[in-house]
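so the lab meeting is tmrw and i was supposed to have these ready like two days ago... anyway. pasting both below. for each one the top line is the aa sequence and the line under it is the structure tokens. i havent really looked at them closely yet so no promises
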Amino acid sequence: GGGGGGAAAEYPDWGAGGGGAGCYITGTTPISTPTATPMAITIGRGGRGGWGPSWWVSPFASLGEQSSQSGGDGTPSIAAFPSGTITAPGGGAGGCSSSVGADGGCNGAGGGSGGGAGSAGPTAGGQATGSNFPGTIGAGTFGYDGGDHPDGHNNYGSGGGGASEIGSTATPTAVGTGGDGIQLPATFRDPAAIYGAPGPTTAPTPNGFSTTGKHWVAGGGGGGQGPSSSFDAPGGVGGGGYGGYGGAPGNARGGIARDTCGAGGGGGGGNTQPTNGGGGGGTGGTGLVLIAY
């Protein structure tokens, strides 16, 4: 499914949560109809990154445009086979400021919770109901929760969930990273293909992973940071976007959508900095449908 969008940061010093990855589903289904039978395929769209702090009023408000600080949810990827429709839901959006991350649609990974605002208390990451991991990469449904946020006062956002790992929880001194994704089954690892995102060159488990460093998908987006930080928050392996960071005046930076090859990763959370307000969140990555027959 399409990845969830990262949230925008709130002025003056609160980081935003990263978006959750789209749901990852693999399996087999029988097809016994003529090859000319239409089979509609829908590719999930990545959720829009959040933009505009909560107090900001759009100059086009009279035309109905409003600021949208939270990110948008990703949309599902759908394969309408004659034997039954298969749907991989989109990932949940990252949470802004003191808000919770959005739940992933049935098994879609949840978005991370946002950084604190004022006296706000702890906030929860978005929920997902993915299978336990490690699992068999050739079959299953995967998606994990976004990171919680333990302290409403700190500058950091939590990471969005990935296909194989929950999003990392922010702490008073560290931003949350995105949960890792998963490698595609061997059937779909065409050496000449560019789909998917870079990954590790050492196999993390003996469950069928290759060491090519290719064909990883569905990583969660990294959380955004406040002005006291100056480094990127990494997204999860498999296309998760980097979170933004704070900086010198004029250097506000939004989240980055690292996913450019249909990996369904979550967008990174936006940063904020003292003078120019909050940066926007990264847009989630587009989904992907692969069929072997």
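ok protien two:
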Amino acid sequence: MRFLTLILLFGIAIGINAQKQTNEFTAVDKLALQIPDSLTKTANGLSDYINSKFTSQSDKSRAILIWTTNNTQYDIENMIATNLYQSTSEIIDKVLKTKKGVCMHYAELYNSTANKVGVKSYVIAGYTKQNGFVDYIPHAWCASFIDSAWYIIDPTWGSGYIQNSKFVKKTNEFYFKAKPEQMVKSHMPFDPLWQFLNYPVTNQEFYEGKTGINKNKPYFNYPDTLMQFEQQSDILKLKSSSRRIEQNGVKNSLVFDMLQHNKREIEYHNSKILVEASNSAVTLYNDGINRLNRFIDYRNKQFTPTRPDNEIKEMVDLADKSLSSSREKLKEIKNPDSNTANSITQLNKSIDEAVLNLNEQKAFLEKYFKTGKLFRKSLFYKFSWMGIPLN
């Protein structure tokens, strides 16, 4: 379990007027609200039901949203509190158990279920603007790839609004399948990649309300960038995201905190990589030593019981391979701290000593294989004449 270092206080829209509901999803909504309680204990239960009742991506995403918004009560008392040690699974388990949460609960539940039913989806972190004013707490919403296009879905703002310190549950149609160019007027992702726009809006422009398409800016090929992002390792995702965030302008403390969060996550991943590489190098070294010792024991027994030459050679080759792999693994460690650097130096010395012994065994084997089988046993004995070795 990993704890997050970024405090996401996730807000909700205040006093947003619900849009007029259409009849397009009347049948879907009705069926979505008929999910048996026994299937709502886990995201898997929800996804299994939705998959059994709906076929189109649009209907599936709508069903998830409607069930989530109608069965979750916004937790006003904890709207500015979060548990730094919560994992995604813990967030989902909590909202399904308590039927209460703030926007990270709404977003994570929708996102998890959507991906399980085959609707590609992401949770997006950022900040918002309400009634012309930028909010001071972060927010989380979702993006889904539905029928070959990206749409923005905000399960929290779509579920209702706060009025007179009370949560009013009322579906707001605007926040289901909103187009990116519309949503960017009120929702600003920390990473501009998640705007899904070819001409991303900067943080400064968001403050100023200048969110229209400006083709005088450099063209941003977000589909290709997203494709590349999806193929990157976790640490490369963090680095590329941080670069885009900085380029879009560090306008407020929320953006700064996100960058600090990414920095700490990068440090964590670097440390994890260092530890894993070090442990792997030690494991490979130990394997090489064990294999080398087994060969030496076998040689001391004069290769008894008898084995084919290729099996005898393989014993040494595998020891060599493990020791070589251990050294290569050490080379992967970049910018180690002083303690790790000392450990690397010591392990390299141990590998050097083992390789010297290994080379002696290789030399013996080379001579052994070149010797006729009738005379091989003599190689296990030392013969000399007047102190001069004869073999």
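from a quick look at the 2nd one: The radius of gyration is 31 Å. The longest strand covers residues 120-130. will dig more after coffe
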